[in-house]
Each structure stands twice: as structure tokens, then as C-alpha cells.
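C-alpha cells as discussed.
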């Protein structure tokens, strides 16, 4: 049934995921630090291998709140533990200036805690966002992410 993963510590994650369901919800102001810490993990990891996706300021709580509204920030949680993030915006004039307003949702800052990397949680977050597109009567989900 479940897939075994060769990397250390991943098998436990897969076994847990078979019985646990990830919940996705907008965040509260009290959860901005959790949101920020999840984004900080891959940002730090990428920086350690000589790549940079986001600066420390861009993933700080203050930086996030200056760029996005609280209603655009979503956390994915397993058993109540926040492990994944994404931003869903109704419009994105910076990266998608020619897209008609009202027809798309724009996904940014998709991130999963490093301990859960490679477990399919990013795909689960995208699947949730696709359902949200339908719930909001949009036509497209446009990804502004490095996958």
C-alpha cells in the first residue's frame, strides 16, 4: 500500500501519512511565525547549497505581512502540526500582468518542512489549491513556484 522511501526518517512519515489527513486552512495572526519558520527552512537549505530563492526578509513574519494579506496565507497541517505553506492570491499584476482579472488563482511560496520533503505534501497542497479554484469559480491555477 504505502511507498517506502530510502532516505532516513521518511518511512515513518509515509506510515503516518497513510492514516493522517492533511488539513489546509488560512492562518491567524498568531500563526504567522509558524508560516515564516516553514518558509525559512528551504530558504536556508537552498542558501547552504549556493542558491537563493527568498531572502531572510522575504520569509520573515514582517516581510510576509508587508507583501501579503493574512487571508492569502495557507498552512497545511498533519495532526495539528503545521508542516506546509502556500500563498493563494486572486490577482498578480507583477508576474501575470496580462491575465484577465477574476479567472485565476495564483500560487506562491509553496513550501514543506525539510523533514517532510519528498513525501508528496507539496502535491497535496497543489491539489487542495486546485479544488479551491473550483470553489471560487475560477478557471486556472497559476503557479509562481520552483518545483
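Sequence:
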Amino acid at each position: 500500500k504505502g511507498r517506502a522511501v530510502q532516505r532516513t526518517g521518511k518511512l515513518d512519515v509515509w506510515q503516518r501519512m497513510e492514516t493522517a489527513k492533511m488539513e489546509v486552512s488560512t492562518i491567524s495572526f498568531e500563526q504567522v511565525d509558524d508560516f515564516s519558520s516553514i518558509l525559512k527552512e528551504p530558504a536556508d537549505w537552498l542558501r547552504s547549497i549556493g542558491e537563493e530563492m527568498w531572502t531572510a526578509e522575504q520569509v520573515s513574519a514582517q516581510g510576509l505581512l508587508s507583501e501579503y494579506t493574512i487571508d492569502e496565507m495557507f498552512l497545511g497541517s498533519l495532526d495539528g502540526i503545521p508542516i506546509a505553506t502556500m500563498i493563494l492570491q486572486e490577482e498578480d499584476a507583477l508576474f501575470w500582468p496580462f491575465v484577465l482579472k477574476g479567472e485565476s488563482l495564483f500560487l506562491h511560496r509553496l513550501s514543506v518542512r525539510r523533514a517532510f520533503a519528498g513525501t508528496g505534501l507539496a502535491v497535496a497542497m497543489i491539489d487542495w489549491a486546485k479544488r479551491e479554484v473550483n470553489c471560487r469559480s475560477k478557471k486556472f491555477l497559476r503557479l509562481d513556484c520552483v518545483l
